[in-house]
Structures are given as structure tokens and as C-alpha cells.
Design a protein that fits this description.
2 helices
Length: about 150
Amino acid sequence: MTTLTGGCQCGAVRYAATGVGTDGYWCHCRMCQRAVGSVAAALVNVAKRDVTWTSGAPTYFMSSPFGRRGFCAACGTPLTFDYPDSAKMDLTVGSLDDPGAVQLTSHFGIETRVPGWIAPDDLPTTRCDDYAPLVARWAAVERPRA
């Protein structure tokens, strides 16, 4: 367990995540691709209780009916992804002061992985529609109306 610190490009928003793991992952889902403006988002999952906003706070955008993205309102740096009702959240690895402190351990949302942009590896992969917690969240908002 370690302490990760980071923030946005302009310095208006800063955070510290204490006592957290350093297992990171690439998310290749279309929402993450658009949110970070790249072919994938590098993320590290942490408990919300372990994160302290030491300067400023993110502004949030609901990117789906149940998920939101935190970013700096001044410079636009993507900082977080979370479900407001969850005890956990993701921090963007690129917003860390030391991105090298996080180790890549898996890939998520591989059904929309863009070939040729991220080197192939032997790490575990998961499709969005094979991840039961996400499938359940979508099912809850996609119920047919009576």
C-alpha cells in the first residue's frame, strides 16, 4: 500500500490517496476513450474514503445514467471516474504526480480496443458485457416501461 498524489495541469485541483494499491488498468470502452480523448484511459481503482482533495475539487459530468467523470473546470484535465453510489472510484493515472508508481495489470472494455495503438500483452482482459456489476447497472436503467 502506498500514497498516490496528483492533480490537474493548472494546479487548481490536487488530491492525495493514502494506503492504496497500485494495480492499474487500461479501459478501452468508448466512454473512457471520449472522456480522455485517447484510445484508452489509464486508471487506478481506490476507495473513496482514502482520497482527500487537498486543493480545490473536481467538477463532475454524468457520462452515463449511473457513472460520472471528475475533471478540473479550469483546465479540463480528466481526474476521476466513479459511480456516485459506490465506495470506490478510479483516478486517472495521467493525473498522478508519479504515473510510474502504478503498474498495469489488466485491460477492460476490450470489445472497443483500437488495434495497433497499445502493444499486445498477456494481461487479463474483460469485455464490458462480461462484467456482471456493469451489466446489472445497465439493466436497471434499461427496464422496459409498463
